Amino acid sequence: MANVPQLVFNNGHTCPVIGLGTWNSQPGEVTQAVKDAIDAGYRHLDCAHIYGNEKEVGLALKEKFAEGVIKRKDIFITSKLWCTHHRPDLVEGALRTTLSDLGLDYIDLYLIHWPQAFKEGGELLPYDSQGKLIPSPVDYVDTWKAMEKVVDLGLTKSIGLSNFNKKQIDRVMEIARIKPASLQIEVHPYLNHEKLIDYARSLGITVTAYSPLGSPDRPGPKPGYSHLLEDPLLKTIGEKYNKSPAQILIRYAIDRGLIVIPKSVTKSRIIQNFNVFDFQLTAEDIKTIGSLECNGRLCSLGDINQPFYPFNDEF
Ligand SMILES: NC(=O)c1ccc[n+]([C@@H]2O[C@H](COP(=O)([O-])OP(=O)(O)OC[C@H]3O[C@@H](n4cnc5c(N)ncnc54)[C@H](OP(=O)(O)O)[C@@H]3O)[C@@H](O)[C@H]2O)c1
């Protein structure tokens, strides 16, 4: 796959260390963003059914395949099973919908997007009259068994988890015939997730860092905090290498041995974010950036009192 450095999964498949994020990339802008990313050298896309734009991502792929710029085997595609489809009999159909939207016969990695299941059969975000998401009793270990079946069917090469905590990963590991290949979690200097990363690694699970730039589309982690991309420390370290804070943040993930999936729909930023393979952070830089840790979680879902909410434990 092109010249992008790769990590090797526990099943022997490989994954480019940088991919383009597509959450919040609007239909109408995501097709062009994916085309720009492929032209810039990206060979990995991070998608999900809940992002509502997999058809538009598929249009870009179709065009790049037709132009002969890439073949299917040259690009790594991740998608995610949404919480209303955890019931084992719904998993294959959910993945087939994603495949049809993307215009593909298989994807490379399918993740359980969140450990919590929501009421099946209606809205993707089924709220009750109090504005709370309506849970479903499905246990993600039963979902995992159905995830293994879609590997057997050849619909995805690898399967993994997203937003699972240590205990939840352990429960999956206990029953898994096919071990999770990757864990996708929020990682950036305000939430550097050292313990969970070390734990996943000890099990042979690679880690993908989402919201690596601090997801500036969302409110900042704590009132009074400057936004991560404006953090003076990142600017100072960036000056040392003649790189932007975004490029320092992307290297912060890569140099910790992670896969990283920054999102942009802006061509110049898509190119800038990929232009990170001509420098490396030192161990000292990584330690200094790590000192920004403030448990600054940006992304959460559902009610903390509901079953399988992942963020009540220490990690
Ligand atoms: N598994 C999960 O539950 C989960 C949760 C969240 C995210 N994700 C995945 O991770 C991806 C990345 O996370 P994210 O979208 O939350 O946030 P992010 O990648 O940390 O930040 C994206 C934002 O940064 C801006 N940006 C990008 N490059 C920049 C640069 N060089 N300089 C300044 N600003 C820049 C983008 O603006 P423009 O687009 O306007 O350029 C966009 O507003 C998502 O797109 C999604 O694929 C997964």
Automatic annotation (TrEMBL):
Instruction: Report the active site residues.
Output: Y51
Q: Which SUPFAM superfamilies match?
A: NAD(P)-linked oxidoreductase
**Record keywords:** NADP, Oxidoreductase
- In this chain, the site described as Lowers pKa of active site Tyr is at K80
Residues holding substrate: H113
Spell out the InterPro entries in the cross-references: AKR (IPR020471), Aldo/ket_reductase_CS (IPR018170), NAD(P)_OxRdtase_dom_sf (IPR036812), NADP_OxRdtase_dom (IPR023210)
Give a Pfam family name: Aldo_ket_red
Q: Mind listing the GO molecular function terms for this protein?
A: oxidoreductase activity
Q: Where is the NADP-dependent oxidoreductase domain?
A: 18-291
Tell me if 4Fe-4S is a UniProt keyword of this record: no
Q: Which family does this protein fall into? A: Belongs to the aldo/keto reductase family.
Q: What is this protein called?
A: NADP-dependent oxidoreductase domain-containing protein
Instruction: Print the organism lineage.
Output: Eukaryota, Metazoa, Ecdysozoa, Arthropoda, Hexapoda
